[in-house]
TrEMBL record:
Pathway(s) it belongs to: Glycan biosynthesis; glycogen biosynthesis
Entries under InterPro entries matching the protein: Glyco_trans_1, GS/SS, Starch_synth_cat_dom
Record lineage: Bacteria, Pseudomonadati, Bacteroidota, Flavobacteriia, Flavobacteriales
Record's protein name: Glycogen synthase
Source organism: Gelidibacter algens
EC number of this enzyme: 2.4.1.21
Length: 467
């Protein structure tokens, strides 16, 4: 089976969030299962494209109010585990950022160029798998645009990684979409706007989300798409994301100060913790709590300054915060360093290596998210023997069970300062029960959240559309 994943992000080429991690791993695991799975994404002006060489496999041009030339490039000396194809449109996509204020034209051009290439292949794909609204018009164009008539019987799947972002734009730009029967324009519309995500839900053969619980949540909280998702529920399914257990393996992770396995977790984590605490002036004898991620409302980041302040008052823990986002939240979190020197520190920004070390060093990972379609951080934490403290939403609810209910993590019911603060209080008590805490560490490192099973679930879904 020939599968093409089409996405704005893919690790390690360009990653903003969990979308990049998923698209960088799922095709690799599908190939391991005997399929032919590839990725199509934009060619950005970034470190990856500067440090690798590419060859051209196709050139074309399209009209988007004016004519744009494009190339399809493939990676030479590829060791990713899947074929990578980059859409190079210098005037639209060759940027040092992934997302911007003119993404309607940028990603519409990307989708048109990708389809212009696919439609002329000698062997058409068996499945086109689209990811989020940036590729949401592909199912419509494949089924309705005259230029892609050859692809209309190719099954399409749309995966919703975050339903809050939908790519809305005005009907004034409908002429930018390759010509189609205008009587079908309703397939593009939702609430008087062209809505790429809504169009994908209507036109794709299957709709998936990145966890079962998130699929159910979207039917009641999807930023305006609730009725549509309930109406289309017959073709909707939630499939839990996995993690790349080769990239995220404490036994082989070359980012770590010391590698470790389940058997050597206590000593291995201790070395990483001591290094991190020395580097950031923290006390390694105290339980270490970490936050890793974007400082935005969806992640509950605005709650962190008060939660941390409440917890640090007793000076019986250390906290390390890694992330960036809302400038006000950044300032409030940074300000706490002056109040609690030796107990609290921050790294404002993105640092992949530090993130890996922090997963290995921390005893607990804090995730007070208001919205978490799947969440990968809690799975990385478990893999590294770090106990996740999570709000009971989305994929967090699917992957974490509370230790007081025969589980292994800490759940709280609601994204509030009170709930988050009490969860940290419970965590400290758990940490102080030394034997139970060490046994729990060994347990959580054995939990299998690899992509192996989820990749097979997707293959079964594809087969149900082909057969």
């Amino acid at each position: 089976m020939t599968i093409f994943h089409i996405s704005a992000e893919c690790f390690p080429i360009a990653k903003v969030g969990g979308l990049g991690d998923v698209v960088g791993a799922l095709p690799k695991y599908q190939n391991k299962l005997g399929e032919t799975s590839s990725v199509i994404m934009p060619f950005y002006n970034n470190k990856f494209t500067h440090s690798h060489t590419f060859k051209k496999v196709f050139s074309g041009r399209f009209n988007l109010g004016r004519t744009f030339n494009f190339d399809i490039l493939t990676l030479e000396d590829n060791t990713l585990g899947y074929d990578l194809y980059l859409v190079h449109i210098p005037e639209l996509l060759y940027t040092d950022y992934v997302y911007s204020s003119n993404d309607t034209e940028r990603f519409l051009g990307f989708q048109i160029a990708a389809l212009d290439w696919l439609v002329q292949l000698k062997t058409l794909p068996d499945i086109v798998h689209c990811h989020d609204h940036h590729t949401g018009l592909i199912p419509f164009m494949m089924s309705q645009s005259y230029a892609y008539h050859k692809l209309r019987n190719t099954p399409t799947v749309i995966t919703i990684h975050n339903g809050q972002y939908q790519g809305w734009f005005s009907h004034n730009k409908i002429h930018l979409i390759p010509p189609f029967d205008f009587s079908k324009a309703g397939l593009l519309d939702w609430k008087h706007l062209i809505n790429p995500l809504a169009s994908a839900i209507k036109c794709a053969w299957k709709v998936t989300t990145v966890s079962p619980n998130y699929m159910e949540e979207l039917k009641f909280a999807a930023n305006g798409l609730e009725d549509l998702l309930r109406y289309e529920s017959g073709k909707c399914v939630g499939i839990l994301n996995g993690i790349d257990d080769k990239v995220w393996d404490p036994a082989t992770d070359d980012s770590l100060i010391k590698n470790y396995s389940v058997k050597t977790a206590n000593s291995g984590k201790k070395v990483n913790k001591e290094w991190l605490c020395k580097e950031f002036n923290l006390n390694p004898e105290l339980p270490l709590f970490a936050f890793i991620g974007r400082l935005v409302g969806e992640k509950g980041a605005d709650l962190l300054p008060e939660i941390f302040n409440n917890s640090l008052y007793h000076k019986n823990l250390s906290i390390m915060m890694l992330g960036s986002g809302d400038a006000v939240v950044e300032q409030e979190l940074d300000r706490l360093k002056n109040q609690y020197p030796g107990f609290y520190n921050t790294y404002i920004g993105y640092n992949e290596r530090l993130a890996h070390i922090l997963y290995a060093a921390a005893d607990f990972l804090v995730m007070p998210s208001r919205v978490e379609p799947c969440g990968l951080n809690q799975m990385y934490a478990l893999r590294y023997g770090t106990v996740p403290i999570v709000n009971k939403v989305g994929g967090l609810k699917d992957t974490v069970e509370d230790f007081d209910n025969s589980g292994f993590g800490i759940l709280h019911d609601g994204a509030t300062v009170q709930e988050g603060s009490f969860a940290i209080h419970r965590a400290i008590n758990f940490y102080n029960d030394t034997d139970r805490f060490k046994k729990n560490r060994n347990l959580i490192m054995k939990i299998d959240h690899s992509w192996d099973s989820s990749a097979q679930v997707y293959i079964n879904l594809y087969n149900s559309l082909i057969l």
